């Protein structure tokens, strides 16, 4: 079995420019929180306005994915990521000649990205080029990119009068929060920081509030519910839990509990003014609105169309997909150790003609709460537990029948040398994820990319230790419906731009 790679395969050419994944208006079916039935929200990709090529987009997404994967694993294991404040031991660093000077190999950021820098005993400053560039010289290694907490932004307004903000949506956490004045420590954002004193509907929540008891960490200060919410590494938000009127689609949602953060640390938040948690816990926006379902449909990485987020009664599989009987449904699994995540039961994989069956423990949630498989909107690349990843890689290598290639330039590991004659006749094995009662049968463009610069043909799946993640690259043009009332996840192939 094979899927021929044609022009639909994501071709990473340096001249193609990416445009917004989502812009435009919002729609709703009701104007009162108590009678709210459904909302339609447009999502914008975090790199939408960066004027990046497709290759740059995938590189940036892959780096953010590595960091997010590490962060999620840290949350499930309770072992924090390495602090940037750790004391460094003595080092022996190699240097090599370059253009009459000497270069030192080093890595910057978390996850670490390799660079070569000139060493200079005649100056003091340590520096590197950073995006966005005003004027930069050409370099052989990519410009650093900050790690992210998610890939898509949602427009909303907060307070009375309503002030517009963009916030990252995150299916892997619950808390809705934004930065608030007066700031103790705040990151830069493109819009003014929310000032609660300027809103007539703002109210700090008391310590007796049920929402306060739902926080993983809270502290009562002057009868107000103080919170600290961490994301598995040094990233965190801290402030006061409050109630406020949020506006979506000109629909006013009164008394939404949110974090008014005056101390917000970490470089993964800078794409927006805060986060909108869509997880399974009581603090998430979906839970607070009392909506039993939500759905999203993500357009292709290089598509200029918007990506819809559907809440409540609007969150149903499209009529065309339902008519074609292509809807697949699998149970959602609860993990008491990580109640926010959307876990599914991955039974096995198929690569072309090879069915990969692994021990049930390979993808299962362990007794200590680690492991398992989650579906996540904020991670681009899919990560599989090492046992499954190695089996997948072996099956692809056997059926691609192409030499291995270096995919480090785009942050991928499972790569093959494309033939000099081109990829038109390359037979890419089908990739199917077998869940409990449902099969996710992916088109080639949802798991295979071509780096036209290096000629590497790469599978957008990486290995991980413990937690496995179904990323949003694999979710392109597939509508996903999270039914938290019935504890099911449904999906079907849909042209998301037409939904």
From TrEMBL:
Recorded GO MF terms: aspartic-type endopeptidase activity
GO cellular component terms, A-Z: extracellular region
Keywords from the named record: Aspartyl protease, Glycoprotein, Hydrolase, Protease, Signal
InterPro entries: Aspartic_peptidase_AS (IPR001969), Pepsin-like_plant (IPR034161), PEPTIDASE_A1 (IPR033121), Peptidase_aspartic_dom_sf (IPR021109), Plant_Aspart_Prot_A1 (IPR051708), TAXi_C (IPR032799), TAXi_N (IPR032861)
SUPFAM superfamilies found in the cross-reference section: Acid proteases (SSF50630)
One Pfam family in the UniProt entry: TAXi_N
Gene3D superfamilies to which the protein is assigned, alphabetical: Acid Proteases
GO biological process, one term: proteolysis
The keyword Protease is annotated on this UniProt entry: yes
Family classification: Belongs to the peptidase A1 family.
Stored PANTHER family: OS04G0448300 PROTEIN (PTHR47967:SF23), OS07G0603500 PROTEIN-RELATED (PTHR47967)
UniProt-recorded name of the protein: Aspartic proteinase nepenthesin-1
Species classification: Eukaryota, Viridiplantae, Streptophyta, Embryophyta, Tracheophyta
């Amino acid at each position: 079995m094979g899927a021929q790679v044609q022009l639909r395969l994501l071709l990473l050419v340096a001249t193609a420019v990416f445009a917004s994944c989502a812009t435009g208006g919002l729609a709703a079916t009701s104007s009162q929180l108590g009678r709210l039935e459904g909302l339609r929200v447009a999502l914008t990709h975090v790199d939408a306005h960066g004027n990046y090529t497709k290759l740059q987009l995938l590189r940036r997404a892959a780096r953010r994915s590595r960091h997010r994967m590490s962060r999620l694993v840290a949350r499930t294991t309770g072992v924090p990521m390495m602090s940037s404040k750790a004391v460094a031991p003595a080092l022996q660093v190699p240097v090599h000649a370059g253009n009459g000077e000497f270069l030192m190999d080093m890595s910057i950021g978390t996850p670490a990205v390799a660079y070569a820098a000139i060493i200079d005993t005649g100056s003091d400053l340590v520096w590197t080029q950073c995006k966005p560039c005003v004027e930069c010289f050409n370099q052989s290694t990519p410009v650093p990119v900050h790690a992210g907490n998610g890939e898509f932004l949602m427009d909303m307004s907060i307070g009375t009068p309503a002030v517009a903000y963009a916030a990252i949506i995150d299916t892997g956490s619950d808390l809705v929060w934004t930065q608030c004045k007066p700031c103790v420590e705040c990151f830069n954002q493109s819009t003014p920081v929310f000032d609660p004193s300027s809103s007539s509907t703002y109210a700090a929540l008391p310590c007796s509030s049920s929402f306060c008891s739902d926080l993983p960490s809270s502290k009562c200060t002057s009868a107000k519910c103080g919170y600290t919410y961490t994301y598995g590494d040094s990233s965190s938000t801290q402030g006061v839990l409050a109630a406020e009127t949020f506006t979506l689609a000109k629909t006013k949602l009164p008394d939404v509990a949110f974090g008014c953060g005056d101390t917000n640390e970490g470089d993964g938040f800078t794409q927006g003014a805060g986060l909108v948690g869509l997880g399974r816990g009581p603090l998430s926006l979906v839970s607070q609105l009392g909506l039993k379902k939500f759905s999203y449909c993500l357009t292709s990485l290089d598509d200029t169309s918007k990506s819809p987020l559907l809440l409540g009664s609007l969150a149903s599989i499209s009529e065309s997909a339902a008519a074609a009987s292509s809807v697949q449904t699998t149970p959602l699994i609860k993990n008491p150790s990580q109640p926010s995540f959307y876990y599914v039961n991955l039974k096995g994989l198929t690569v072309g003609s090879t069915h990969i069956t692994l021990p049930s423990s390979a993808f299962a949630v362990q007794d200590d709460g680690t492991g398992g498989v989650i579906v996540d909107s904020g991670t681009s690349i899919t990560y599989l537990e090492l046992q499954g990843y190695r089996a997948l890689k072996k099956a692809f290598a056997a059926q691609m029948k192409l030499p291995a290639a270096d995919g480090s330039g785009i942050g991928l590991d499972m790569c093959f040398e494309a033939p000099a004659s081109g990829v038109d006749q390359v037979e890419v094995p089908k990739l199917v994820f077998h869940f409990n009662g449902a099969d996710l049968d992916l088109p080639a463009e949802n798991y295979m990319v071509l780096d036209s610069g290096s000629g590497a043909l790469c599978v957008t799946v990486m290995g991980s230790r413990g937690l496995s993640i179904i990323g949003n690259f694999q979710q392109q043009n597939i509508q996903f419906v999270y039914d938290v009332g019935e504890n099911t996840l449904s999906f079907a192939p849909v042209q998301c731009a037409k939904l």
